[in-house]
TrEMBL record:
<keyword id="KW-0472">Membrane</keyword>
<keyword id="KW-1133">Transmembrane helix</keyword>
<dbReference type="InterPro" id="IPR050601">
    <property type="entry name" value="CPA3_antiporter_subunitC"/>
</dbReference>
<protein>
    <submittedName>
        <fullName>Multicomponent Na+:H+ antiporter subunit C</fullName>
    </submittedName>
</protein>
<comment type="similarity">
    <text>Belongs to the CPA3 antiporters (TC 2.A.63) subunit C family.</text>
</comment>
<dbReference type="InterPro" id="IPR039428">
    <property type="entry name" value="NUOK/Mnh_C1-like"/>
</dbReference>
<feature type="transmembrane region" description="Helical">
    <location>
        <begin position="6"/>
        <end position="24"/>
    </location>
</feature>
<keyword id="KW-1003">Cell membrane</keyword>
<feature type="transmembrane region" description="Helical">
    <location>
        <begin position="64"/>
        <end position="84"/>
    </location>
</feature>
<dbReference type="Pfam" id="PF00420">
    <property type="entry name" value="Oxidored_q2"/>
</dbReference>
<dbReference type="GO" id="GO:0005886">
    <property type="term" value="C:plasma membrane"/>
</dbReference>
<feature type="transmembrane region" description="Helical">
    <location>
        <begin position="33"/>
        <end position="52"/>
    </location>
</feature>
<keyword id="KW-0812">Transmembrane</keyword>
Length: 102
């Protein structure tokens, strides 16, 4: 088994574990973390596919695609965490006991 095949197997396992956790949990923060784990698996698979056995250097297009994906993942994760914070704050205000006037 070559390194690329091992990395592909690990990438598929990361994707499966992340996707399963994302579907099975109700906590929003854990869903974001699970989505990031699944994304890391996809990135690992793409980086493994970038190595061609006959070529002396890996494919730079897939490397650029993975780097762009990492940047997008970081920004989307920050945005998702900000949305989760706002959702939890709104639910806390909605579920807080209200004092009656008078």
């Amino acid at each position: 088994m070559s390194r690329a095949e091992l990395f592909i197997i690990v990438g598929v396992a990361l994707f499966v574990f992340g996707a399963a956790r994302m579907l099975l949990t109700a906590d929003l923060i854990r869903r974001v973390v699970a989505l990031n784990v699944a994304g890391a698996g996809v990135f690992l698979i793409l980086m493994s596919l970038a190595t061609v056995r006959d070529a002396s250097e890996p494919d730079p297009v897939l490397h650029a695609l993975v780097l762009t994906g990492i940047v997008i993942t970081v920004s989307i994760t920050g945005f998702a965490l900000a949305l989760i914070r706002r959702i939890e704050r709104t639910e806390a205000v909605r579920n807080s006991p209200r004092e009656s006037d008078g």
